[in-house]
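Q: I have two molecules that I believe assemble together. Could you output structure tokens for the complex as a whole instead of separate predictions?
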Amino acid sequence: MQLQNDLFLRAARGEQTERTPVWLMRQAGRILPEYRAVRNSLSGFIELVRTPEHAAEVTIQPVDLLGVDAAIIFSDILVIPEAMGLPYEMIEKRGPYFPKTVESEADLNKLLGEEAADNLTYVYDAISLTKKNLNGRVPLIGFAGAPFTIFAYMIEGSGSKTFSKARRIFYQNPSFAENFLEKITAATIAYLKNQIRAGADLVQIFDSWAGILPPAQYERFSLKYIDQICNAITEVPVTVFAKGAYFARQAMGKLNCQVVGLDWNMDIAESRKLIGENKVLQGNLDPCALYGSYQSIEDQTKAMIDAFGNHKHIANLGHGVYPDTDPDKVKYFIQTVKKYSQKNAK
Amino acid sequence: MQLQNDLFLRAARGEQTERTPVWLMRQAGRILPEYRAVRNSLSGFIELVRTPEHAAEVTIQPVDLLGVDAAIIFSDILVIPEAMGLPYEMIEKRGPYFPKTVESEADLNKLLGEEAADNLTYVYDAISLTKKNLNGRVPLIGFAGAPFTIFAYMIEGSGSKTFSKARRIFYQNPSFAENFLEKITAATIAYLKNQIRAGADLVQIFDSWAGILPPAQYERFSLKYIDQICNAITEVPVTVFAKGAYFARQAMGKLNCQVVGLDWNMDIAESRKLIGENKVLQGNLDPCALYGSYQSIEDQTKAMIDAFGNHKHIANLGHGVYPDTDPDKVKYFIQTVKKYSQKNAK
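A: Yes, here they are, computed for all two components at once.
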């Protein structure tokens, strides 16, 4: 099917576009009353993730309601641990929780690698259905967590300020960590390839906890596996978003990916210099900026567009949109990007 | 009183020392069974902070038990909000909690500024008593939170992954934020000066949540007030530790302080280049490294010493020592710094 609005994809490929495309991380869910209505009709987050019709519905909501230039499949990075054999729960206001964690070589051996991807049919079905219902309006983004971030959750069992239980393994038993990361990487590559077969037009890798590693360990225990994923995915463009990994920006420039996401701490000009001219940059307005007045949002957004320039940029926030953000403010951000970057592109 | 071991102070002043001095953030408390024995005899953390005899006792424990080159007064950065009029609680395993927060201009007007420092006699008494009982063995460090970090807690009411309630004020009502930050700064300067009068040999400013701000906001809402504090404190050397503020390293080099703390994400050579040759650098071993074997700790510590060189460095971790660290491993880190940097200095 021919896309009616392929701005996002053309920009991701590095082509000059008539204006800057825009979408938001966490756009599907959280902020929209229409999302909460769907979710409240179900037993919870995980049922929503597992039910293709509902996942597709909330994936498309922001396209209709906010006017974004891309949809991102409603899912969670933690479906991979579950498919590998480690189920998670989602505890309201606390976040993910794993009743069992991986504590030994024996635990690791019980987990599935590449074959885990076969357990995620509900995601592929959700993608196929979303593609059908989007009917070519905008491209659809698939995604997965970076192996390090997935590893961190599978060892730690929940979010953590320090992830010290997971990170100590890099000092205590690095080869165990490497075996584990390889297994997650194999599952992730198969999973992303299936997402692409089901219709994902681009895939994004989220390294949510990247910022907690010392630079040398980041290179060895995270970037290496992201690199393997980037090399394996040749079918569609790949975006890498490693929150907090400012120290790896130069290395990001050498990844076999098309787009690099920036968080709101990362200076735009400096990031461009470090990452190089070849990559498309995505981001990076502070999610808190959307709590400001309309005028303040407009000023902040214009300043961001000016700093990125009108080429090789996909507008986004520097992190997922915060749950209590007013959807009208989100719309204003999107409209400002569209209008201002168009004017600017001339 | 003449100090018997003034390595830490001489290094902080930028003098060449016979070996690298070493201490640990959070060395007083947490990891030592001797600390837990004192704490368990009391109603909790806050009673310990408020009782000079006990605070002095646990401050001196790591000097005796671990062999560090400096003591740091056992206290909390949140005594300032309390002294200003906003009491905190410390909830076991959850962290600090403020029953009331600052929500309006009226709330702010009710808070004390400079005069808040008069309410912290128990800290000054703890410092005097510690100095007496240390009997010149090592220098004593006083400390305070950076105004932004204190502001963040006073608005948010607890720790937070995003501090979005506090940070949105920078977009919504920046002049309110500035008035608030000025008041905290006035209280902090008076507080630190009283600590110095009571005997603190150096003061450290902890900007624990620095890493959550976009660079331009960091400059305006945090660094500006740290700068005011640095300019006001002329009696003793000042250390600034802004965790996560990698983007502000160049600006840190221009502060009127002697020592800049590095967290474990910050590349040592790059930080030296950005901060410049004039500052003493403090840090920055990953706290997780102390979970490794003795051999691994030795290797990591030596690599750190080599990277900093044998001048203008105070060895430390890149963050507070984690609570479940084995004290014997901490001792081994300290011994390795002492032996290896001495050998190295020759």
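A: One point stands out. The beta strands of chain A are 71-72, 89-91, 95-97, 140-145, 202-207, 238-242, 259-261, 280-285, 313-317.
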